[in-house]
Amino acid sequence: MDLDLTSDQELLQQTTARFIQSVCPLETVRALSDGDADAGPDYRRQAAELGWFAMLVPEDLGGGSVSGDGVLDAAIVAEERGRVLQPGLFVATNAVASGLVLDGTDEQRAKVLAALAAGEATATWAAAGPGGDWDVETGVGAEATAGGGYLLHGTKSFVQDAQTADWLLVTASGPSQFLVAAGTPGVSVRRLDGLDLTRRFSEVRFDHVELPASAMVGAFGGAHAAIERQLQVAAVLTVAESVGAMSHDFEIALDYAKARTAFGRPIGSFQAVKHLLADTSLLLETSKALSAAAARAVGSGGPEAAEVTSMAKAFVGDSALDLAQNCFQVFGGIGYTWEHDQHLYLRRLTVDAALYGEPAWHRERICRLHEL
Amino acid sequence: MSDDSTEIAEYRARARAWLEDNLERRAPGAAVKVRGTDHKSVEYIATQRPIQRRLFDAGYAGISWPRDYGGQGLSPAHERAFNEEAHPFALPDFGIAAGTTFGVCARTMLAHASPAYLSHHIPRILRGEELWVQFFSEPGAGSDLAGVTTRATRDGERWILNGSKVWSSGAYYADYGMCLARTDWDVPKHRGLTWFAVATDAPGVTVQPIREINGDTEFCQEFFDDVELSDDDVIGEVNHGWTVAQTMLVFERGAGNTSIMPRPSGRRKLAPDLVALARSAGREKDPEVRQLIARAHVNDYARAQLAARVAGLMRASKGLDAGVAAYVKLANGTYDPIRARIGLQVGRADALLWDAGDVDAMTASLNFLNGRVMSIAGGTNEVQRNGIGERVLGLPREPSFDTDRPFSEVVRNARSWSGRTS
């Protein structure tokens, strides 16, 4: 992570790591993955008590963070989560919270945002269009109805924990955004099988869903700023989770290279393996640097946040894929077995690289940001 | 600057006043020249020496160097303050030899040479009378630095130097080379090395420019034919040259990192050289070209962030292990070739054939030719990977077949080596 953490932030990092180790270590993650990857309400409650969902919420709504830089603190938590492949909502909830902070009505802030911070409700972001299209305005159309409400129709994909979330923040064409309560008529959630065993993603269909005016977040057709903020928060926290997962995968591969012997010596003493690990280490150190820079940029909310987010997401996405493959190569045959942890990390990192924009998507975004 | 103590603040103000009165301002927005387009003539270098003399006379040369040898004996904070104030001014321009003289050779000599040696050479360096380059690599030894075969043979009170050195940047206008020679062939290679001060105009020394693939002649090769040296020319102790070399390598790491990335100035622009190439070829809307430009841009940014992180790691470890510096070098050696190739992919025909005077196209082709310099010079990618693997990641060191046998035997058997002991 960032090298310049305050002592409070270091304490946050240690507390988070300890919580994860005691409540949901890798063995538990593995066991949950064989089932439906639900960490359960107790985990969510304890996480909420640690402030996991409060860091981007204003203090007057029960929010707050250790250092005052909510995004950086959330990135610290994210990295520890990624290190141990934690299931459940974190990135999406914080992205939703950041959007509600900008565009939420008083009622939405009091009812939903405050509840998220306290852990009394859960929320996820229905962002991607069908087929994983990260131009988040695609997939769902919204029209105003004669009665003053709105009608949503379409499909969203890659929605994490849609089956259990109390609220869905739906991004529709326009762009407009809507808070949709679980159980709203016309909303059907179809849980999909996935490469990543540690998280649950669904396709959510909106079949002429009627919503009251009070469900809209922000202006009709005017949700650009909130969407951009949500994308930045989600991308940066995903980058941080990836860096945590990359760190652990690299660590176990390095340990293996020191312990495994062949031809009378540790395999890491052979130059081919040593150099592969050195190149991979370079990717990891660069990714750590980018994660810190992006968290700080988005936290400060300055004009470069949009570009820095995309630069970090593009580089770390590609690096995560390479690192997972390289570690696989170091492990050799044992890395191809179900019982070994390597494939859990390979699966998660590969999905992370695509979530909230694949590297190529972010590279195109960088060109547009520079008006090329 | 608000962190200055009163003493530093006053020093800074005095320096600023002196600079305003005595030096010209640099041309604003002067771009860093692409390698191969900035040849410095001997005559040009001669015009810079009086400027260095002026700095010395005013007390602004060797600010943190010992007073005993002509320095000012002040703190690094004083030196930093002066360097910050001097940034907009035209300091003496000694090209590549500036780094080797002030950043590498002098600092190494200050750490290891005798007081008599330092009393002779350091003031001359500070006055601009002695420019130093490194006589380190040889045609037969680059990565294997301890495997040099330039020999210094004892002859009565003298040493007789024979051999050749290569890749000495700027030797054609330098006054001295810091020369690593073998003085004992009957011990393992690391234990028979000695450093000598060799004047470039000494009888028997021939300095020959090397024509590089980019057309420039910055690098040189030197030939030594029975060059006579004295004990006064020994730097450090006889046969203890490897210790001195370790010091020099640390100083070298902090010096030249001459990537082909354009130096950023002001608000971050999208790879300006690549965008210019794309626009002039009318390809800026081509999706593949856009991906390549953005990839290069992201890599440029990533490298800068990595460098900042490594600097932080080195500060935190207080220089205990500079192994992490290898990350920055490896990053340059890895991403420069990628960037160079992207330049060709974006420019396409324009980077292969161009009208005379098309600076963007010429730059792309020069960057392509220079693309592997950082992968090879100053420690190859492979050497950096070994360094990271062993010193940072803690992997076992390479097996070695030459470190505990007499060097003369190693050289004799090298070609027929098979590594098999049975």
Beta fraction of chain B? 5-15%
Count of DSSP E strands of chain B?
8
Distance between the termini of chain B: 67 Å
> Which chain pair has the greatest contact?
A-B, 37 and 45 residues
Average of pLDDT of chain A = 96
Strand content of chain A: 5-15%
Q: Radius of gyration of chain B in whole Å, from Cα?
A: 23 Å
CATH homologous superfamily (4th level) name of the largest domain in chain A: Butyryl-CoA Dehydrogenase, subunit A, domain 3
Short description:
The complex is a heterodimer of chains A (372) and B (422). Helix content of chain A is 52%, strand content 15%.
Task: Explain the overall architecture.
- The complex is a heterodimer of chains A (372) and B (422).
- By secondary structure, chain A is of the alpha+beta class.
- Helices cover 52% and strands 15% of the residues of chain A.
- Chain A has 11 helices and 10 strands.
- A 4-stranded mixed beta sheet of chain A has the order 1-4-5-8.
- In chain A, strand 2 (140-144) and strand 3 (150-160) form a beta hairpin.
- The longest helix of chain A is centred in the middle third of the chain and has 36 residues, at 224-259.
- The radius of gyration of chain A is 21 Å and the shape is globular.
- With 422 residues, chain B is of the alpha+beta class.
- Chain B folds into 3 domains: 15-128, Butyryl-Coa Dehydrogenase, subunit A, domain 1 (Orthogonal Bundle), CATH 1.10.540; 135-253, Butyryl-CoA Dehydrogenase, subunit A, domain 2, CATH 2.40.110.10; 257-392, Up-down Bundle (Butyryl-CoA Dehydrogenase, subunit A, domain 3).
- In chain B, helix 7 (272-280) crosses helix 10 (359-370).
- Chain B is globular and about 75 Å long.
- The chains are: A alpha+beta (372), B alpha+beta (422).
- Chains A and B meet through helix 7, strand 10, helix 8, helix 9 and helix 11 of A and helix 8, helix 9 and helix 12 of B.
